[in-house]
Amino acid sequence: MFRIVVAVLVALFALQARAQVTGTATFVSDYRFRGVSLSDDRPAAQLALDYDWPASGWYAGGMLSNVRLDARKAVQLLAYAGYVHRIRPELSWEAGVRYTRFTGHESYAYAEAYTGFAYRQLVGRIYYAPSYFNAGYPAWYAELNDSHVLSGKWYVFAHAGYLRRGGNVADYHVTRFRSDFRTGIGLSLAPCDIQLSWTTVHGAPDAVLGYPSAAGTSRNAWVLSISYAW
């Protein structure tokens, strides 16, 4: 799967249409991925690059972030590529693939495909991973994200996610489902953006879902995010 993602990225970079390139540097007080802390309830620094070919509908990008897995420091590397098609001015659909791995002895490498839609500020996606976090079982994840301007440069945002893992969970005696929620307020001071949010999760514990989070991480947290875009 990794070779497929690389091949898609190479093909995109070879397109004749000129790409629009953007980047973002972000500091977060706690790196939360689908509700779980991948930084052991600690701060993290992230760098993202995005490439967009408006004339063709193709896009690609990647992200780096420091993480803390199994009580050890590591770096997350994420690459993605996809295609978006505008149905009408306020409605579009998309599909793509993502590949994630981590440095260190255990990479937890996995790939997932996704499809979704965007209607104004409302964005929804469904992801499928054949081997979620390289744990040997498939997983589905659905999410909805929305935001609304309050006044001037202030806005509010919300996220809701729902994950279902495959495989046998009888030995754990717990559910195979998990939901995560995030809501907060943001201040846009272009090119900077500041967010303060509350995130929480309910359902299956981290170990059941294959998350390599450190023991004792919180299921609820306030998260401060400061980003700079160019």
Q: How do the strands and helices of this protein lay out in sequence?
A:
Elements: H1 2-13, E1 20-28, E2 32-33, E3 36-37, E4 44-53, E5 58-69, E6 72-88, E7 91-102, E8 110-119, E9 122-129, E10 139-151, E11 154-165, E12 177-189, E13 192-203, H2 206-209, E14 220-229
Antiparallel strand pairs: 1-4, 1-14, 2-3, 4-5, 5-6, 6-7, 7-8, 8-9, 9-10, 10-11, 11-12, 12-13, 13-14
Describe the structure.
The structure is a single chain. This protein has 230 residues and is mainly β. The chain has a single domain, classed as Porin. It is built from two helices and 14 strands, in the order αβββββββββββββαβ. Strands 1-4-5-6-7-8-9-10-11-12-13-14 form a twelve-stranded antiparallel β-barrel. The protein starts with a helix and ends with a strand. The mean pLDDT is 91. It holds the Pfam family Gcw_chp. InterPro entries: CHP02001 (IPR010239).
Low-confidence stretches: none
Distance between the first and last residues' Cα: 31 Å
Question: Secondary-structure element order, as H and E?
Answer: HEEEEEEEEEEEEEHE
Tell me the name of the CATH class. Answer: Mainly Beta
Percent strand: over 45%
Q: From the helix content, strand content and strand pairing, which structural class follows?
A: mainly beta
User: What is the overall number of helices?
Assistant: 2
Report on the biggest sheet.
Answer: 12 strands, antiparallel, barrel
The overall average pLDDT, rounded, is 91
Identify the overall geometry: globular
Helix content range: under 10%
The counted number of beta strands is: 14
Number of domains: 1
Signal peptide: 1-19
Pfam family, one: Gcw_chp
Keywords: Signal
InterPro entries: CHP02001 (IPR010239)
